[in-house]
Design goal:
alpha/beta, Rossmann fold, 2 domains, seven-stranded mixed beta sheet, six-stranded parallel beta sheet, 41% helix
């Protein structure tokens, strides 16, 4: 917020009481501007931004995305050293998609280790409440709260251990997306099998020859069951990989999102009787498991100890099974710890819903009488 003053104004002087009222109004407006904002600080990766947005929406505060990266010599310093730089000096070395300046937010959500120095600098300058998602690779006590997935093996007094990634898959979102998209696939036979494609990463590869074999297995499954395929690639899915899989399923009833218009990702999750996901993406597997629908995981070339732990936990939870070209039927409780994280933040910021306040009061009564 900015206030302009004109030296040429020579109108009547405000009474002391009026001036005080005006100052109070400005202060209240400034506080409101701060109280109504969340900054989501990320390196710009779609998967990390989705997690931050999911938590911000669950908390209930408006948010702004801040895509940041270190510039100049700061890029050469590891995170553990960057956080030692005075905050004002650090922010001058950060390139951001949006200014990192007052009015400061009430809540800062950072995701991924590259966002850690910026988030901590903002906290030191503003006193904002900070949540970091994933293992920050620095002491947890530097943040107000950390939400780290179980497969990160990161614990602490202020750490919430989540099952997989936090995400925005809710019954309401699924119902709305499914209802809007259903007419477009009304002619596709059931069972409808959603196929979520990842791509090359540090640990895995998804070359065209693997896509051809995967597509053949999917086509065979659709023929055996009399069903159809709902396929959506991600930003990491290579063009040749997409073409290879599309060719392999060409004679099978399907809908293959070609990248035009909005991604029907949530609609596919809503309308499918089964979901197949490539193993490279923790986010997509967890989001698929947020539906309660059977989820199959397609193996890819590569290896990651961290992701191996994640997939083992998901199988133990009963949410996923390896994709072997056949469909089974089973049930499990949808996987979504986003609300657990959001409720902790609302409590810390005094934003609890009436139901949450009542639950807290009842819990206090139980403790007092125990």
């Amino acid at each position: 917020m900015s206030v302009s003053h004109s030296g040429s104004f020579d109108g009547p002087k405000a009474a002391p009481g009026k001036a005080a009222d005006g100052a109070a109004a400005l202060i209240a407006e400034s506080r409101k501007a701060r109280a109504d904002k969340t900054w989501i600080v990320t390196d710009g990766a779609a998967g990390t931004e989705a997690q931050g947005i999911a938590v911000a929406e669950a908390v209930g505060l408006p948010y702004a995305l801040k895509r940041v990266r270190a510039k100049g010599a700061m890029r050469l310093l590891p995170t553990a050293l960057q956080i030692l730089v005075p905050p004002k000096g650090l922010l001058r070395t950060i390139a951001s998609s949006d200014p990192l300046e007052p009015p400061w937010p009430r809540l800062v959500i950072s995701i991924g280790r590259h966002a850690v120095p910026t988030a901590l600098a903002i906290k030191r300058l503003s006193g904002a409440y900070t949540l970091h998602i994933q293992n920050p690779k620095v002491p947890a006590r530097l943040f107000d709260l950390v939400a780290a997935p179980a497969h990160d093996n990161f614990e602490g007094p202020n750490v919430i251990t989540t099952f997989g990634s936090v995400h925005g898959v809710t019954p309401e979102r699924l119902a709305e997306a499914g209802q809007l998209f259903a007419p477009r696939i009304a002619d596709l036979p059931r069972p409808r099998i959603a196929v979520l494609l990842g791509g090359d990463s540090h640990a895995f590869s998804f070359p065209p020859d693997i896509a051809t074999g995967f597509g053949a297995k999917l086509a065979s499954l659709a023929r055996q069951t009399g069903g159809s395929l709902l396929v959506t690639p991600s930003r990491r899915t290579g063009k040749e990989t997409v073409e290879a899989l599309a060719k392999a399923i060409a004679s099978t009833p399907h809908f293959f999102w070609d990248g035009s218009g909005d991604n029907p990702y949530f609609a596919f999750l809503s309308l499918a009787e089964a979901i197949v996901v490539t193993e490279d993406s923790v986010n997509m597997v967890t989001e698929a498991a947020g539906t309660g629908t059977p989820v199959y995981v397609q193996a890819l070339p590569g290896r990651s100890k961290r992701l191996s732990r994640f997939h083992a936990l998901m199988r133990e939870r009963g949410a996923t099974r390896p994709f072997e070209g056949q469909l089974d039927s089973w049930s499990y409780a949808p996987v979504n710890d986003t609300e657990v994280v959001a409720a902790r933040i609302r409590s810390a910021l005094g934003l609890e819903t009436k139901a949450e306040k009542l639950d807290a009061a009842e819990a206090g009564c139980v403790c007092a009488t125990a």
